[in-house]
Amino acid sequence: MGGKITTIGQLQGKKQGGHKASKQLHPKSRRAQQLIRIGLRDQRISHGKKERREIHKTKTERYLWFAHAMDPEEESMSVEDIHELIRLYLSRHDEEIAEEVRARRKGRPKSKRHEALETDRDGGKADYKLHGFVVPDLSSVECVKQLGLWTREDSGAQQGFLPRIRLIRLYSQDSAQHDQIVVVQEGIKESFAQRSVMPKSKKASRRDAGKPQEESTKRLLHMAEQRKAAQADASSVPLPAMDVDDAL
């Protein structure tokens, strides 16, 4: 028996009685039901991918906001300062929401933009209180360095930097877990960064140290070959031969 059919291509390529299935299908036939199930499956997969992309985009924009909000001259900041940045981040749309309220006529429903801004703000505040708000650990010097590399113009805020960023979860003041700091992602550590760089520098130093001796050997060998060639061509006074081992 064949495997389970999960795509339309597999279904169309399947033969019945040595002949391909007809394009006209009865709406209650088994193949029509298969097509319906495959179509629904494709919709679920596409919808799931879209949701994951939106979630990833939202998180990336949040981390970049905190990276740009920090003073570039500071190497790190205190946890209380990070809490202050979180409150500033959650209220970043307050002016636009107030503008939407003033522009809305009496008796008219909220605009989609107004609803989206309020949903984002209220959802963030709820997470901050109940589940914790995930932000880059700006109290870590190494994390701040990685954020600086991530936001550089030539890096283009590549998503490959995300695993390097140390992430923590903080809770609002009116939460029972306010004093907790939960590490969500370790990110790259300073010791790991040094270990990953030092072997390469040691190899490079050994290679650079051996270059003078290697170049000297090549130069002496070249000189010996020139003397032998000159001795063979000379017709008057032969030059003394120079052995390669002596040159070395």
Automatic annotation (TrEMBL):
Coiled coil: none annotated. Residues 16-31, 103-113 have a biased composition (Basic residues). InterPro entries: Tma16, Tma16_sf. It comes from the Eukaryota. It holds the Pfam family Tma16. Residues 114-123, 206-230 have a biased composition (Basic and acidic residues). This is Translation machinery-associated protein 16. The gene is Mo06316. Residues 1-31, 102-123, 194-248 are annotated as: Disordered. It comes from Mixia osmundae (strain CBS 9802 / IAM 14324 / JCM 22182 / KY 12970). GO terms for cellular component: nucleus. Belongs to the TMA16 family.
